[in-house]
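Repro:
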Amino acid sequence: MRIAIEEIGNSLANQGADNLPKIILLNGNEPLFIEEALDEVRKTLKSFGFAERLRYQLEAGFDWGGVTGVGQAMSLFSERRLIELRVPKSLGVAGTKAITEFCNQPPEDDILILIMPLLDRRQRSAKWAKLVDNSGWMVDSYPISPEQFPRWLKMRLQSRALRVENGVIDLLAERLEGNVLAAAQEIDKLQVLAENGAVTVKLLSDSLADQAKFDVYTLIDVCLAGDFNRALRIKQRLQSEGIEPVIVVWALAREIRSMISISAAIVGGQPQSGVLRQYRVSSKRESMVSAALSRITAKRWYDLLEKAAFLDQSVKGQRYQEVGDLWHQIESLCAAICDQGLDMAIAS
């Protein structure tokens, strides 16, 4: 059964003490969401008499009998128990077998919650995952997209009884994009600083540091979407964080090659939807890739590849002596992908 992560506390409360799931799989890559969901689970289950909490971490040589067999060794006062198992990567062969056994024969008074990174398609199609979905709860925590971030900020502010003037949410989104933990901490700080719960742009500007967090793949997606102003911000952040230019150039060139193949297949008469599936373009990236395909012709993708290849040779051969000059050329390539004019791109 699928449960929204933000509803996990209410969903457990509505089940009642005698109708709770025996296993909950909580998966996602944002620590803030995972830990807040766990807090809700613990609080709700404690009200149902789960006074004991056992915590495990999956590592080499892990004894699965300590988890699957824990319910067979009742505690002194026969308390109901919550078993938390953190799985850094995957369950492994022994783990999938143990979880299957747990689902088929769950202990009467224990609940197992698995905490894992966000499951990929292969993991979700595995028998053990389907068994958890059928016999327990599957709770997915997906990352917040840039488009969703302002709404999340608004809800977070409202949940803390904070009132904001126009421009506050936009400023928060600009400075903290991609870093929900920093955003949550900033909002908690505003609770202390804001007089009578009123947050002004001046108050936020005085207290806020630029803590946006990006990576090379975010830069690629923003370029495909054609948002050069945002691409420029991300490029500047990567540069300030000391990311090696060769990594950025490699990633951009790799994406351009992929776009050449996709564009050529479409020009050759294949339907775009089928081509995107063939090249494993995720649903999350479809709109960005489609935007780039509609904006840049197949021939121009080859021009971009030529310029990327020239820059790659320059980076590896150190033809540009100054690192700043390398980043300027990367910026020009990003501008060209965003269709700001090929004349802005690298002159070969």
